[in-house]
Fold this sequence. Notes:
The structure is a homodimer. In chain A, 33% of the residues lie in helices and 16% in strands. The first copy, chain A, is an alpha/beta fold. Chain A has one domain: 3-Layer(aba) Sandwich (UDP-N-acetylmuramoyl-L-alanine:D-glutamate ligase), CATH 3.40.1190. Chain A has a 9-stranded mixed sheet, sandwiched between helices. In chain A, strand 4 (115-118), helix 3 (124-139) and strand 5 form a beta-alpha-beta unit. Chain A is globular, with a radius of gyration of 19 Å. The two termini of chain A are 26 Å apart. In chain A, 57% of the residues are buried. Residues 1-41 and 312-316 of chain A have low confidence and may be disordered. Chains A and B meet through strand 1, helix 1, strand 2, strand 3 and helix 2 of A and strand 1, helix 1, strand 2, strand 3 and helix 2 of B.
Amino acid sequence: MTAADPAHLPAGSARRSPGRPDLPAGSARRSPGRPDLPAGSARPHVLAVAGSDPSGAAGLHADLRTLFSLGVHGMGVVSAVTAQNSVAVSGIWALPAAAVRGQLDAVLSDVRVDAVKTGMLASAQIVADVAEVLAGPVAAGIPLVVDPVGVASTGRSLVEPAAVGALVTDLLRLATVVTPNLDEVQQLTGVAVGDSPEVRAADLRRAADAMLALGPRWALVKGGHLPPDEDALDLLSDGTSVLELRSPRLPARHTRGTGCTLASAVAAHLARGLDVPAAVRAAKAYVTGAIAGGYGIGAGPGPVDQGWQGAGGAGR
Amino acid sequence: MTAADPAHLPAGSARRSPGRPDLPAGSARRSPGRPDLPAGSARPHVLAVAGSDPSGAAGLHADLRTLFSLGVHGMGVVSAVTAQNSVAVSGIWALPAAAVRGQLDAVLSDVRVDAVKTGMLASAQIVADVAEVLAGPVAAGIPLVVDPVGVASTGRSLVEPAAVGALVTDLLRLATVVTPNLDEVQQLTGVAVGDSPEVRAADLRRAADAMLALGPRWALVKGGHLPPDEDALDLLSDGTSVLELRSPRLPARHTRGTGCTLASAVAAHLARGLDVPAAVRAAKAYVTGAIAGGYGIGAGPGPVDQGWQGAGGAGR
């Protein structure tokens, strides 16, 4: 690991933030759509704020593979380190809030960021700091995708209880898109989605509305946890436009990292200039392929394959 | 980020270590060459132990992109989190030794590991723990690539002074390959390589011999920091076979992550079954392309491009 050495820079170039020397002047800070950049310009930059999973299935690893596959430069602020494998979570170490802020500041003071995705934010202080630091970039038009990670599917909470409250009070109002599953909808809003097919679509709308009341511009409610006898049904809504996204339910065993992959793919496509519905559709198609390509690595469920399109993937 | 849920596993499959349900019985723990696996079998698994760089240029990010590009499942134990960007390192937070050990145990108790690569190990205790945990896998034939990261090129030490001593006493004797640059050779052995071309090759042999005296099976001494008027010259030696590896010195500005990428590529190719000289040659070719594809992201030098081979990549 080699850190940059300012002494190696040509004179005068040591601090030229936040522009890029290889881009024409004036193009350094753009709205996320990037319509003003000629084809072939430098790749978009996407920042993930996430926990790490040493077995490489979920969290930061899934985020980075997704961003790389979709042709963007992926960056990653570590909010927590977990010890986990395909069977269980055996340890969680939240980073000090100062370390999370230090990482964010290091990136934002030097690198143009075209979209941000947040995942596991282990403590209320980390949520509050992330929200405070991102308020400026979001106000400047940088899209923010919030994956409101709470409880692991093993039942172990990945975040302290107060962190859930801080998501509601501090972060969700900044989000361009929030991507809860049904458990997270219930945790954040109290709205439960019923199991019976006839109430499902209406319940999903109610869930999306409850999420939108917390302030994000769009809510993508993932119905993947509904009974397995039907297609998977997700609902994307901004309160006016409501899209039902159906996909065939795959008989997949290796699905770890699905949520991280979807949220990162949405961020990647937003950074590439798609609008929210188009970015979500593209991300859904990508994650469906990744689930189909999932592979085992241990005794339990393995990761989805972010490289199913080939290492280059869409847009490279 | 979704953790695995044992409740979703079919009865009886919850703990079947370390085999893979999709591999024939008896193939779960193999020597790294994998000659016993039929073509088309599951991808190799490589574990990196590294620091993280939030700007996504060096450390764990570079490792994971390299492993992904070379068609192996990459895993990552976080040993330290840094705040850095293309200009400077502004903060370092070493993980508690228990967190490093917890991550290692989570991976090794569940996932077959075909090669290990270590990078930034921030404290003597972390080095000692990593060495203790890896002693068994190394004795069982799992190759270990040690990138003896010490001082950042900014001049800021990335590890505590005692960690350098622990590398020497605890870890290097386990290494299949150690990949120091000339600064690291001097730090670890006291041997300085001269700047004048006529003494260079002989000095590199002396440097490699000094490294081999610390116990690794092979030493790859990277001469990249020699005066820029000549080809880059690296030397690979096990004390008997000595290979001089020349490559054209590229006029590259964006070279962050070069060392991480090289060491991870060596580990990936060892996990794929190449012997050390072949793995090093393949890794050198890969990193040379990555350097040529390097791209700017901030005011200072940017990362090399691990995706330069585009879709497919070596071995995918």
